[in-house]
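Before a colleague's protein record goes any further, I have to sign it off. What it holds is a sequence and that sequence's fold in token form. Would you go through it and say whether the fold makes sense for this chain? The record follows directly below this note.
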Amino acid sequence: MSYHVDQFHAAVSVLAGHGHIKQRLIKAYGQYLESIDEDELPDAVRETFVELQRSLHRVAPLNGEGPVCASVRKMSAEDAGDCAVSIVAMYRSMIGYAGSVEPGLALGQENRTAVPPFLIKSV
């Protein structure tokens, strides 16, 4: 999960950078998100990610350009912005998901144990 959160963070960083939204979207998705397998994502973002993939692979490429470049080229700036907003929203969801479960701990009260007194710092 940490790898995917890092990839989304990098993509959001590109989207927040300089340049035209279409170029930032192509770079963010192509460099950081395209290789992600949607089956490895939490359920909360999987459907949105699949929709993003479809949007960025709608147009057949021409003259050696990739499907992402071709699809973004045909988008309006508003559509590209909507894709960027969905990436930011997925990143936000993934941060919430990743922060809700501590590594190595199962959820539920039955697995929690009291902290031994010698580990509690006295004031």
Q: What stands out?
A: The chain is about 60% helix and 0% strand. The two ends are 37 Å apart (CA to CA).
